[in-house]
Every structure is written in C-alpha cells, then in structure tokens.
Amino acid sequence: MKNSVKVLSVAALAVGLCVGMNTVTTTAAPANSIAVVDVAQVINNNSQVKKLKEAQEKKSEALKTWVEAARADVEKQKTDSEKESLTQKYNKELQSKVNSQRQELYAESTKIDKKIGEAIAKNAQTNGYSIVLVKGAVLYGGADITEAIKKATK
Q: Rounded to whole angstroms, how far apart are CA atoms 81 and 122?
C-alpha cells in the first residue's frame, strides 16, 4: 500500500511538472519569431532628424556666405603674394569649419541612431521577437513593427 502511494505521488509529481513545463513553453514567445522595420521610413519620420537637417542646411548656407565673403576679400588684395597668403588662411579656416560641422553632424546622428536602435530592441524584447531585420532585406514574412518604432522615436 505504501509503495503504491509512493508510486502515485511520484506519478502525480511527474504529471504536474509536465503540465507546468507545457504551460511555460506555450506562454513564451517562439524562439524564432521575426520582425521587420522600414528604417528609412522611421528616419524620414523622425522629428530629430528633421531638425538636424534644417540646422545643417542653415549652417551650409552660412558657410556659403562666408566663402563668398572670403573670395571677395581675396580679390580685393593688390598683390599675388597677399592673395596667396589670404587664400591659405581662409582655406585653413574653411577646413576647420567643415570638420567642426562634420563632427557635430556625426555626434547628433549617433544619438538619433542609438535612440532608434534602443526603441527597436525594447519593442523586440517586449513582444518576444528574437530577430529584427531591415524590411528591404525580407521578401516575405515577419511582423512589421515600423509604426510602433515611429511612434516610439518621434
């Protein structure tokens, strides 16, 4: 009698574990669930990107104006040596200004890229996606999370 109680207890425990494990596996996301994101659409819809583009356009216009003024200043010089000296000075300044703009653009772009990447990772973790691909790389399939990423990264 004691042996049959032990066997029944062990059997009940085994059945309980199997049912518990089955519940856990059915509630977890599939290990190979795939999502896709239209990154170009996310970037084009991002307000930070729009502000960055506007700021860069203004800086480019200011730089064009500066170059025109520098050229006019060089033309005003009387001797070739003065023109050459001033041209070299302005070329160095121009290179410095261009490098500064590039560094600013890179820093801001990196921040935006990081924010978009974090939004994609958070969405993937929240919704159980194990893989997120660029939409253009996928011919068929995958859950499109573009709209959710656009909302998260306005």
A: 61
Q: How far apart are CA 154 and CA 110, in angstroms?
A: 16
What pairs with residue 134 in β-bridges? Answer: 37
Q: Say which CATH number the domain at 39 has.
A: 3.30.910
Q: Can you give the residue range of the structural domain that contains 71?
A: 31-152
**For the segment 89-143, what is each residue's pLDDT rounded down to a tens digit?**
999 999 999 999 999 999 999 999 999 999 999 999 999 999 999 999 999 999 9
pLDDT digits (tens, 9 = 90+) for 108-121: 999 999 999 999 99
Same domain, yes or no: 127 and 138: yes
Residue 139 and residue 153: Cα distance in Å, rounded? 26
Count of all residues that appear for the chain in the document: 154
Contacts of 49 (CB under 8 A, 6+ apart): 43, 112
Same domain, 72 and 115: yes
Q: What pLDDT, on a 0 to 100 scale, did the predictor assign at position 14?
A: 37
Task: Give the pTM.
Answer: 0.69
- Paired tokens of 9: 């207890």
Predicted pLDDT of residue 151: 94
The tokens for 37 are 């994101």
No. of H helices and E strands in the chain? 5, 3
